[in-house]
Amino acid sequence: DAVVRLAFESLDAEEALTGEVREVAILFIDVTGSTELAMNHSPSEVAEVLNEFFRIVVAAVDEHHGLINKFQGDAALAVFGAPIAAERAAADALATARRLGTTLARLTLDFGVGVSAGPVFAGNIGAQNRYEYTVIGDPVNEAARLADVAKSLPGRIAASGAALERADDESGHWAGHGSVILRGRSEPTYIYVPR
C-alpha cells in the first residue's frame, strides 16, 4: 500500500519511531447533525450528549477487544488488531458496529459507522518530543468514507468486502447492499449492512 510505504519513508532516520505493518480492522463512527446540536443547545448540553455517545462507543469497542485510537471532534476511530494482534479483528469490529447500531438508536443523535480491514502502518508518528500512536493506510480512509455513506442507510452502518472476507462466523450477520463510489475513489466498493 502506497500510504503505508510513504509513512515508513517519511520517518527521519535520526527520529525513527517504532511502527510496523499490521493486519487490522478499523471502525470509524461519526455523529450527524452536531452543528445543529451546537446551534440549538448550550455548550455544556452538547458536551453531555457527546460524552454519553462516546461512553457507549468506548464500552462497545472495549467489549470487543478494540482500542479507541482517537477522538476527532464528533467522530472516533477504533482499531482492532493493533497494537496487540488479534485473530478475530474483523469479526470483532463488525460485531462492535452491530452493537453500536442497536445501542445508539436510543440517543437523539444520528450517526454513521464504517468498517474496513487490511494492512496499515501502526506505530508512533511525530517527532521524538511529541508523537502519538496511530494507524495509517487505506482501511482507515475507507472506514471513514463508509461512515459517510452509512449516514444515508437505514441502519447507519456500512462495511467493506475486505472486512467481511476476514470476518469468519460474524459474516453471517451481514448482507450485501450493492456498490458505491466512495469519495476520492474511481472504482466501486461493494458494501455490506447488518441483516
Automatic annotation (TrEMBL):
Cellular component terms (Gene Ontology): plasma membrane
Species this protein is from: Mycolicibacterium diernhoferi
Membrane topology listed for this record: Multi-pass membrane protein
UniProt main location, coarse: membrane
Residue ranges constituting the Guanylate cyclase domain according to the UniProt record: 25-147
CDD domains: CHD
Keyword Membrane part of the UniProt annotation: yes
Protein name in the entry: Guanylate cyclase domain-containing protein
Cited InterPro entries: A/G_cyclase (IPR001054), Adenylyl/Guanylyl_Cyclase_3/4 (IPR050697), Nucleotide_cyclase (IPR029787)
Family annotation (Gene3D superfamilies): Nucleotide cyclase
Keywords assigned by UniProt, alphabetized: Cell membrane, Membrane
Family: Belongs to the adenylyl cyclase class-3 family.
Compartment list: Cell membrane
One BP annotation, GO: cAMP biosynthetic process
An MF annotation (GO) of this entry: adenylate cyclase activity
